[in-house]
Amino acid sequence: MKSVIVVGAGVWGLSLSLRLAETGWRVTLVEQYAPGHVRQASAGHTRLLRSSHGSDEWYARMAWRAREAWLRLGERAGEELLVESGLMWFAYQEDGWESRSAQVLKNLEIPHGLLEPEKAGRRFPSFRGDDLAFVLWEPKAGVLRAREATLAVARLARAAGVTFVRARAVPYGERTGVVADGEVLTADRVVWACGAWLPGLFDVPMTITRQDTFHFAVPRDWTSPPLPAFCDFDLSAYGHGDIGGAGMKVTSDAEGEPYDPETGSRQVTAAGEELARDYLGRRFPALAGAPVLFSQVCQYALTADAEWIIAEAADGVWLLGGDSGHGFKHAPALAEYVADVVDGLAEPDRRFGLHERVPARGLRTSGSPATRRTPSG
Ligand SMILES: Cc1cc2nc3c(=O)[nH]c(=O)nc-3n(C[C@H](O)[C@H](O)[C@H](O)COP(=O)(O)OP(=O)(O)OC[C@H]3O[C@@H](n4cnc5c(N)ncnc54)[C@H](O)[C@@H]3O)c2cc1C
């Protein structure tokens, strides 16, 4: 039986472990805390699932495949992991990022529509869209209940025979093994899926930034049925309606300060709230003064081009990371891809290598603070 050690029980490491265990591997999963712990990126309250990725077809296809996989995982777990609220992209130009996305969705036959801002706005109790050219609508997109989904995948992985080891791992030289709290574990392959901790272990082209997220209190009649999720590529903002009573998420996607996932404070800042509130007041005016109901601090593991890292560091030793703030949704489909790579059945695309990355925007949002930019497409 082929054996593998996966380090990191975030949604990437868990999904890969589940996939490998279900395709005949003996899997040991080493995690320094418990799956779903507060510091991991996968323990956020929610994560968006959308297929639009500008002109990139690879990620669009993967997100669409992942959507199916999340629905199946939800059925297996007996929980609604994906809330199919639909998602709107607010476009300022007729020929910008959103129209390139729409073209890809059309090519791949992924459901979508182009809406007049006024018509799109009717789906929200309070909406201002007079600065928009159009709205790109993904009716099958939605919101993942992230922490619940992470814990559900952990349960499925355990049931599939994955052995969980609670320890902090360090590399065992260049050999296919790890030293887990002093104990040497070896296997045919090792995969380091360590999120924001990866740069502390390997030389990877990645920076870690602090990200504050905010949920604002809404009137009770805004809470059901779920409002659409939304993304604003140009102004680096995103959010969704109330899920599970936590309030409406409206958050800036602007890249925050450098951050240490282990020792960084988990208390949100006034500056973070100001960025979120700026957008709230601009787009959903009735909520301009709404109190913050719930907030979290998380971290992005960013590469300069927002492309991931799937690379062999030494013979049989793989690095999986650099999710760049857009990796949750893809996890089950990415796990299938990486499982084939680890098994030697496929080569990873060159874009995921350890080469120095050329800065590029286009896979998530522009990443710049809304207050310092004028929307341009
Ligand atoms: C604010 C915010 C918003 C986001 N929004 C979205 C979104 O809308 N849609 C989307 O798709 N994605 C989104 N993301 C990104 C998504 O959360 C991540 O892509 C995903 O959670 C990454 O999972 P991971 O398993 O790689 O990392 P993590 O969940 O961080 O897990 C890594 C794990 O490795 C463990 N570990 C590290 N080092 C060691 C070691 N040496 N030994 C043992 N264990 C170790 C850690 O304890 C941790 O549990 C967002 C992220 C943030 C921060």
From TrEMBL:
Domain of life: Bacteria
Keyword Mitochondrion: no
Alphabetized UniProt keyword annotations: FAD, Flavoprotein, Oxidoreductase
Family annotation (Pfam families): DAO
Region (Disordered), start-end ranges: 356-377
Polar residues bias locations: 365-377
Name listed for the protein in its UniProt record: Sarcosine oxidase
The species this protein was found in: Planotetraspora kaengkrachanensis
Residues in the signal sequence: none
Keyword check for 4Fe-4S: no
GO molecular function, one term: sarcosine oxidase activity
Domain FAD dependent oxidoreductase: 4-340
Cofactor(s) in the UniProt record: FAD
Matching InterPro entries: FAD-dep_OxRdtase, FAD/NAD-bd_sf, MTOX
Record-linked Gene3D superfamilies: D-Amino Acid Oxidase, subunit A, domain 2, FAD/NAD(P)-binding domain
SUPFAM superfamilies xrefs: FAD-linked reductases, C-terminal domain, FAD/NAD(P)-binding domain
